[in-house]
Amino acid sequence: MKNYPKVAVVILNWNGKFFLEKFLPSVYNSSYPNIEFVIGDNASTDDSLAFVRASYPKITLLENEQNYGFAGGYNHILARVEADYFILLNSDVEVTTNWIEPVIAMLEQDVNLVAAQPKILSFHNKAKFEHAGAAGGYIDRYGFPFCAGRILDKVEYDLGQYDDEKEIFWASGAALFIKSQAWKEAQGLDEDFFAHMEEIDLCWRLKRMGYRIGYCPDSTVYHVGGGTLNASNPQKTYLNFRNNLFMLQKNLPLGQAIGIIFIRFWFDLLALIKFLFDQKFKDAWAISRAHRSFFVNFFKNAKKRKTLQTVENKTGGYKKSIIIDFFVDKKHKFSDLNQKHFL
């Protein structure tokens, strides 16, 4: 009999009864033989836990005493879970029957391949990729993340163009497979991020340790997206701009970090002006708040740099600016990008 490593599918919940009712059935019917289902709750005030207890009594329920956000919430929950692999799965994800086995099989083949994501399509239009992850994440020279299948706000249809296994820079937190040993070695997610880009930071730290991140097209999930904060929420703008600066300071070599962050301030200023021009004043203020928070936390994040190793796997980095490629050169598809510029 084949020895299957133990997998824990862990869904972090915060007042998410609607999503649990809608998507837990597909998750709970997963075919993988050695599996534990865990709902980690971030101090919900709705009746989502009562629903799980009544409808899915075999699911493990672990509760946090307060809302620690996405990053802290998962850290507190996973500290109480024992498995060979963790799957961090958003509550607004519908899975397919055989979504786990291909990714675990891929990860089992390489000791240095420690995290991966499946193909992530849109729940609302299953012929298209979904914004948060698509066919695997990359990062440009100035720290702007993008995906195969999604550059900025342009999302491609899935025509089989990204059906090859490959190494990527970051795997989406919407459906993140990770070896528990690597999770512990990297000390999980950075809780100061609260939410947004924390999985990119985690993957970057893993790559600095010399590990690899993968994309598995033989597994497919469907993601709603924006279940907690939609794209037009100024708080999301704040977290994305702030956390991106945090990530750059923590993970880039010191000299490079100073230069890149200086350039990023100018990119961010252009974004702020664009928000003002579009009369999105709360989003413009969110960028200003993000920069202020970056400086307030400067020395705290500087201390985090000292804990990082220096052996880095740079595969998945993009040597050019995705912003210039997109707006100036009108390259709106991943296939439009010159593959020679990828590390």
What does this structure look like?
It is built from eleven helices and 14 strands. With 343 residues, it is α/β, with parallel strands linked by helices. It folds into two domains: 7-223, Alpha-Beta Complex (Spore Coat Polysaccharide Biosynthesis Protein SpsA, Chain A); 229-308, no CATH class. Strand 2 (35-41), helix 2 (48-55) and strand 3 form a beta-alpha-beta unit. The mean pLDDT is 95.
Which helices and strands occur, and which strands form pairs?
Blueprint: E1 7-13, H1 17-28, E2 35-41, H2 48-55, E3 60-63, H3 69-78, E4 85-89, E5 93-95, H4 101-108, E6 113-122, E7 137-140, E8 145-147, E9 150-151, E10 154-155, E11 166-168, E12 175-179, H5 180-185, H6 198-208, E13 212-223, H7 234-251, H8 254-277, H9 281-296, H10 298-305, E14 317-318, H11 322-327
Helix pairs in contact: 1-2, 7-8, 7-9, 7-10, 8-9
Using brief descriptors, characterize the structure shown.
343 residues, 3-stranded mixed β-sheet, 9-stranded mixed β-sheet, Spore Coat Polysaccharide Biosynthesis Protein SpsA, Chain A, globular, 2 domains, alpha/beta
Helix content: 25-40%
Number of strand segments: 14
Gyration radius over CA:
19 Å
Q: End-to-end distance, in Å? A: 41 Å
The H/E string reads EHEHEHEEHEEEEEEEHHEHHHHEH
CATH architecture of the largest domain: Alpha-Beta Complex
State the name of the first-level CATH class of the largest domain: Alpha Beta
The name CATH uses for the topology of the largest domain is Spore Coat Polysaccharide Biosynthesis Protein SpsA, Chain A
List unreliable stretches of 5+ residues: none
CATH homologous superfamily identity of the largest domain: Spore Coat Polysaccharide Biosynthesis Protein SpsA, Chain A
